[in-house]
Amino acid sequence: MSEEERSVTTIDEYIPLFAPPAQERMRALRALIRETAPQATEKISWQMPTFVLGGSNLIHFACSKRHIGLYPGSEAVEHFAGRMEAEGLNYTKGGIQLPDARPLPLDFVRDVVLFCIARNESSAAAKAAARKKPAPPA
Questions:
Q1: Is the overall model pTM greater than 0.85, yes or no?
Q2: What does the pLDDT look like over 29-87, one tens digit per residue?
Q3: 42 C-beta neighbours (distance < 10 Å), count
């Protein structure tokens, strides 16, 4: 990772660090995430463009040499493993590779983002319910 990549503080600063074809792909990915999760906020976390919803990270992405890495977390990767295998996408425990040699699978990414929204909303609701629970008697 270059010093430039370590010093960025916004997604607008991150995207221009890469070649124009990668910039175009990242802008399309960002637009899709914003459209699907308009209530999410943006930040840089772990030196990656990150979207936050309900106080928790929703999804990250990062540019690599031959792909864009999409990082929705291990629960989402596990949920979509069969579909990724069917579509020939490589993945790790918490990340999905979107190869530069193929068009962005926008419908798939939208489904991943929707899954992550549901996960974050469920987690936020559970945290709120736990805060409302009365303390057990002493």
A1: yes
A2: 999 999 999 999 999 999 999 999 988 999 999 999 999 999 999 999 999 999 999 99
A3: 15
Burial grade of 71 (CB within 10 A; 0-12, 13-18, 19 or more): buried
What per-residue string of b and e applies to 89-108 under the rule 16 or more CB within 10 Å gives b?
bebeebbbbbebeeebbeeb
Q: Write down the pLDDT at residue 88.
A: 94
Instruction: Residue 4: count other Cβ atoms within 10 Å of its Cβ.
Output: 11
CA atoms within 13 A on the CB side of 70: 31
Going by the DSSP 8-state scheme, the letter that residue 137 receives in this structure is: P
**Are 120 and 56 contacting, i.e. CB atoms less than 8 angstroms apart?**
yes
